[in-house]
Amino acid sequence: MSNTLENTIITLLKNNDKKAISLLYENYSGALLGVIKKVIKDDDTAQDVLQESFVKVWKKGKSYDPEKAKLFTWLYRIAYNSAIDKVRSLNNKMTKEVQIEESNVYKLTTSSLNQDTLDIKKHMSSLDFKYQVVLNALFFEGMTQQEASDELEIPLGTIKSRLKIGLRELKKIYNP
After folding, report:
1. N or C, which end of the chain is more exposed by having fewer CB within 10 Å?
2. How far apart are CA 105 and CA 38, in angstroms?
3. Residue 114: which pLDDT band, with cuts at 50, 70 and 90?
């Protein structure tokens, strides 16, 4: 690559001129794809990383300093680091995926359940309806107190009072 073409690209890049990206792509995409493919074997992923690299080049264009590195060296570092980041990202994603086979969620035994509370819905039906509604929303529908207030159109203070009274009534049933 001639120094004049390189200088032209640098000037265009520093001025946020879109011609810089097309010139960079024409002159460097093959070499940069080669750099990326040394890290990433999958063609589609490598192409994605190449595109991401050019986006980074565009965003960082004004910060490029020819005193610190030649243009190709700068581009090489961005492409190589993008490829490494992609590999790390893919590895992290694979390790974070849920492993159903190793999960203990489905291994609950009846001995781990409190037999005394299995009939709580039956006992709740003995409470006033206004307490049942609040307890059901909070404990069986998983709402927060604010969500229950909004959904049931009951003031938040009333939700809190009914929760307290409803729990106190249930406690009388379970701890007479």
Report:
1. C
2. 41
3. low
CATH of the domain at 133: 1.10.10.10
71: CATH:
1.10.1740.10
- The rounded distance, in Å, linking the Cα atoms of 62 and 41 is 31
User: Phi then psi for 168, rounded to 5 degrees?
Assistant: -65, -40
CA distances from 101 to 48, 105, 108 (A): 32, 10, 15
Question: Phi/psi of residue 32, each to 5°?
Answer: -70, -35
- Is the model's pLDDT at 121 over the cut of 80? no
Question: What contacts 67, CB < 8 A, 6 or more positions away?
Answer: none
Token pair recorded at residue 85: 């980041």
C-alpha dihedral over 133, 138, 141, 146, to 10 degrees? Answer: 100
pTM, to two decimals = 0.53
127-174 pLDDT, tens digit per residue, is: 898 998 898 888 777 888 998 898 889 999 999 999 999 989 888 887
